[in-house]
Inverse folding.
């Protein structure tokens, strides 16, 4: 039991750090997108818009979202609808949480896998953006990384809820 709790604390610490790094990168991306948009609007007003602003904004926003998912999960900032589950006993809630977090872990791992697979297809086909000619596979792989870290966040939540279930049955 203590080994499980020790592992959960260690996994939580590592997962938090990894997701925090991605979240900090998303903050930098947001600042870049804001600055790029401001400069582009001013440049467009002066008659010479910046080439690739739309592409960089679109790809940057995608990365911003995927990089922030795991951190948002760890901070419990996602919307949750629990008006039914909150009426259940703490034991039943822990069981429901365990099942939910486990299923979401699998779902996010599948999403990360298929995003990486899509990145491989983009790499093989050499797909690039139209204006700046940026390779799209890089963005797919980075998105897959964000989804994988999101799955890790769900896995840690699964372990915590599973630990609660075990405690209810042991005591």
């Amino acid at each position: 039991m203590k080994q499980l709790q020790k592992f959960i604390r260690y996994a939580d610490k590592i997962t938090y750090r990894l997701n925090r790094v991605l979240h900090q990168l998303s903050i930098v991306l947001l600042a870049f997108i804001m600055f790029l948009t401001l400069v582009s609007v001013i440049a467009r007003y002066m008659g010479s818009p910046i080439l690739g602003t739309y592409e960089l904004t679109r790809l940057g926003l995608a990365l911003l979202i995927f990089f922030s998912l795991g951190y948002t999960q760890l901070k419990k900032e996602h919307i949750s609808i629990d008006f039914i589950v909150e009426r259940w006993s703490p034991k039943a809630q822990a069981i429901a949480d365990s099942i939910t977090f486990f299923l979401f872990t699998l779902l996010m791992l599948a999403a990360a896998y298929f995003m990486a697979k899509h990145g491989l297809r983009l790499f093989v086909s050499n797909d690039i953006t139209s204006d700046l000619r940026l390779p799209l596979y890089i963005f797919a792989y980075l998105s897959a990384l964000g989804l994988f870290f999101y799955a890790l966040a769900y896995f840690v939540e699964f372990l915590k809820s599973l630990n609660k279930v075990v405690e209810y049955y042991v005591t």
Q: What stands out?
A: Residues 2-45 form the longest helix (44 residues).
